[in-house]
Amino acid sequence: MIDTNLIKLDPKQVFESLKSKKYELNLEAFDAFELDRKNFQTQTEDLQAQRNTLSKEYGLLRKEGKEDKTLNDQIESIKIELDACSQKLTDTQGSFRDFLLDIPNLPSDSTPKGGGESENVKMRDFGKPLISGGKDHLDITSLINTEAANILAGSRFAVLVGKIAKLQRALIAFMLDKAEEHGYQEHYLPLIANAESLTATGQLPKFADDLFQLTDDYFLIPTAEVPLTNLYRDQIISADNFPLKLTAHTTCFRSEAGSYGKDTRGLIRQHQFEKVELVQICHPDHSDQTLESLTSHAESILQELNLPYQVVELCTGDLGFSAAKTYDLEVWVPSQETFREISSCSNCTDFQARRAKIRFKEDGVSRLAHTLNGSALAAGRTLIAVIENYFDQHSTIIIPEVLQDYTKFKSIEL
RNA sequence: GGAGAGUUGGCUGAGUGGUCGAAAGCGCCUCCCUGCUAAGGAGGUAUACGGGUAACUGUAUCGAGGGUUCGAAUCCCUCACUCUCCGCCA
Q1: ipTM score of complex
Q2: Which of A84, A232, A367, A378 has the most CB atoms within 10 Å of its CB?
Q3: Which residue has its C-alpha nearest to nucleotide B18's C1'?
């Protein structure tokens, strides 16, 4: 949720800022909601105050054994009025909240302006793509079986077999160990989250279609960002502990309703994939620099795997709902002769913290923390990158050196 | 899944219909006293939202939601969680 005070203070600026993120803020509706809310709230509280004093009076009279019919009637009529008024207040607050939950986070001042993907800004790169074209990962190895998965579940799933399955496991273990080296505390988490958690991090109510819903209040998580961030929902954190650095490997589930026809082949876009996630919760003054360090932690994994990648800063038009600033890490995928997103590192500023009520105390006042998250990395896509970039173009996938302690083998003969 | 007990402020813990946002103790903060890392004294010390330039002030919150009542931490219902016992299971 964005700070409503900002809208009150400088509506035009907020409007323009959101517009750069392709969101048309309805200022008239906002004003109307705010006015209604204020009226109904003051009125309700006023009536409650009246009821409280009159009830006290009534009680004192009662104690003396007296009755007062007028007083009784007065209380009765206040109650009727109060009921109506507080109902209106509840309704207004509900619709106002729905309205606010729909508004995306404001882009940071430093975020480049732009309409979409093509206007993202390349920041830096690492390594040189050595292989271009050639077989893709499905053609390289039969240890990725999409036909079998299709029988088991449907499209956009995969069965990994033998050394490829183990390679993915090695990648995950390696990533978690790197995260630990960087000071992140590992977590094992529920893969199911409730609506409240998903609302706090911004997936709900707006993006319900992207989620697999199990029952009324059970959803499969689309990312470990949800449970990790919600670990601190409704809490006041001691600022001494900042920054909180959390990590977890989880399976992620995405229904990706909007993406049919895109990346239909291979492991790029799946309903289910493995990911190691980094989350930091920090002081608002430090979140800019925290994003840089969190991104560098994700990058270090690609560097140690010696995979060519580039870092791209998303422009305002391509920014996610909860993010104020985002760096995408894009790894070289030889068969596609292009860089593909393998990690997305975002500063969500106080947007999630406001929804989740994640606060800390400073000089006796409680303030909202800033939350950041990033993949380090998406394991399925890293697996593709390793297979394709380490394929010798004949019959062997070489295992990157840093993974060999984990796999216990040095190559996969095909 | 069955039976029972419980859930109060940072912590311990009192409170079974009104004067209770809540005793007392601990902790913490400020000040006083004290020539010394102690003891004593005074005051302060929840969260959220609203009104007000401010001093200040209103409302709500005693696990959550609903109900009874002029009035609910206190009575009733539903749910969640914790603990104990039984059953079942990885």
Answers
A1: 0.81
A2: A378
A3: A59
Amino acid symbol at A297: H
* Correct CATH for A117-413 of 3.50.50.60, 3.30.930.10, 3.40.50.360, 3.90.25.10: 3.30.930.10
List chain A domain ranges: 26-101, 117-413
The nucleotide minimizing the C1' distance to residue A58's CA is B70
Give chain B positions with protein CB within 7 A: 18-19, 47-51, 58-60, 70-71
Closest nucleotide C1' to the C-alpha of A366: B47
Q: How far apart are CA A249 and CA A238, in angstroms?
A: 26
Q: Which of A92-96, A181-185, A314-318, A325-329 has the lowest mean pLDDT?
A: A92-96
Distance A116 CA to B64 C1' (A): 44
Q: What is the mean pLDDT of chain A?
A: 92
pLDDT in tens, A154-185: 999 999 999 999 999 999 999 999 999 999 99
**Which helix (H) or strand (E) element contains residue A175?**
helix A162-181
CB atoms within 10 A of CB A295: 26
Q: Write the class of the CATH domain A26-101.
A: mainly alpha
